[in-house]
Specification:
Distance between the termini: 33 Å
Bound molecules: adenosine-5'-tetraphosphate
Strand order of the largest sheet: 1-2-3
CATH architecture of the largest domain: 3-Layer(aba) Sandwich
CATH superfamily of the largest domain: HUPs
Number of helices: 14
Structural class: mainly alpha
Oligomer: single chain
Largest sheet: 3 strands, parallel
Strand content: 5-15%
Order of helices and strands: EHEHHEHHHHHEHEHHHHH
Helix content: 40-55%
Length: 327
């Protein structure tokens, strides 16, 4: 059985982008692959976090994974900081990386720009930690959103570099991205990705938003003055974003949607997209409220930690032995 690893940061309230680009796609793999899904809280601290909030968001995110359909009898769900090999192999991967290749990472450049003069070094060493996360489980496939493509390429480079220097220790993983990309953009600035850390809450649909909020935000989504429903990311980013949300939920192609909406106004498209999003998120929100704070959640995370640690410790030992670090 091939192995899957993926993670989400508890760095804010989860968005429709995190769901359509990542979480929704994690679920079907649990029937066909050995899956490890992680709350990557050590990635979240690459920018300052308030401890009580980080603590709460970590279990909330675990509850969201389960509410979205993750079955703990099929997949392993755990918290990154509870399996120490992530930080340990992270250091090994840092020593395998070059400063130049880290400085070229788009996410680093974007996030560093927002930090003024005091750029946390963790922002630059985020990709080697992500490589360690994936390589510890010898993952063959990593389901992530399109925005993570550069980080997946550097993960493959680091795995190949390590294997070349020290022998075949790591599986070199492939990225898996949803068909059509499913890159969800901000509803207010549709050339920018929808993000947990965006301060503009009207621009973002959160997984736990109430129905009225979802409808209101989609109604106010930025479009254009052409009044033609056509997928054209360059010239019609707002309408294209709505079509891509529609496609990711309805499963329809852009060509089909353009035919369906021929001659119709943006109001109709917005109403249909809002109905689809509400229909998708409402059951998740209901299950989330049943799960969060339940003792069952704690038990699932304890078991997940032990299962993840069993696998990660074997790989870590292999890596440090190969490097001459193990006495
Ligand atoms: N807008 C998006 N569209 C599609 N996929 C997305 N992902 C994130 N935003 C979108 C995917 O969600 C997964 C988890 O992301 P993450 O928590 O590791 O952090 P991120 O990519 O940096 O997500 P955010 O929401 O933008 O978080 P902040 O604001 O904290 O940086 C990944 O698979 C990602 O591709």
């Amino acid at each position: 059985m091939n192995t899957i690893f993926s993670g989400i940061q508890p760095s804010g309230d989860l968005t429709l982008g995190n769901y359509l680009g990542a979480l929704k796609n994690f679920i079907p793999f649990q029937d066909t692959h050995e899956c490890y899904y992680c709350v990557v809280n050590q990635h979240a601290i690459t920018v300052p976090q308030e401890p009580a909030q980080l603590h709460a968001r970590t279990t909330e995110l675990a509850a969201i994974y389960l509410a979205a359909g993750l079955d703990p009898n099929k997949a392993t769900l755990f918290v990154q900081s509870e399996v120490p090999e992530h930080a340990l192999l992270g250091w090994v991967m840092i020593t395998t990386s070059y400063v130049g290749e880290m400085e070229r990472m788009t996410q680093y450049k974007d996030k560093a720009r927002k930090q003024g003069d005091s750029i946390p070094l963790g922002l630059m060493t985020y990709p080697p930690l992500m490589a360690a996360d994936i390589l510890l489980y010898q993952a063959d496939l990593v389901p992530v959103g399109e925005d993570q493509r550069q980080h997946m390429e550097i993960t493959r480079t680091l795995a190949e570099r390590f294997n070349y220097r020290y022998g075949e220790v790591f599986t070199v993983p492939e990225m898996w991205a949803p068909k059509g990309g499913a890159r969800v953009m901000s509803l207010q600035e549709p050339t920018k990705k929808m993000s947990k850390s965006d301060d503009n809450r009207t621009a973002t649909i959160y997984l736990l938003d109430e129905t009225d909020d979802i409808v209101r935000k989609i109604k106010r989504a930025q479009t254009d003055s052409e009044s033609v429903i056509r997928y054209d990311k360059e010239n019609k980013p707002g309408v294209s974003n709505l079509l891509s949300i529609h496609a990711a939920i309805s499963g329809k192609s852009f060509a089909e949607l353009e035919r369906d909406y021929d001659g119709q106004g943006y109001g109709t498209l917005k109403k249909d997209v809002a109905d689809l999003v509400v229909g998708e998120l409402e059951p998740i929100r209901r299950r989330y409220h049943e799960l969060v704070g339940s003792p069952e959640l704690g038990r699932i995370l304890d078991e997940g930690r032990d299962k993840a640690h069993a696998k990660a410790s074997v790989t870590y030992r292999k890596a440090v032995e190969a490097m001459g670090l193990y006495r």
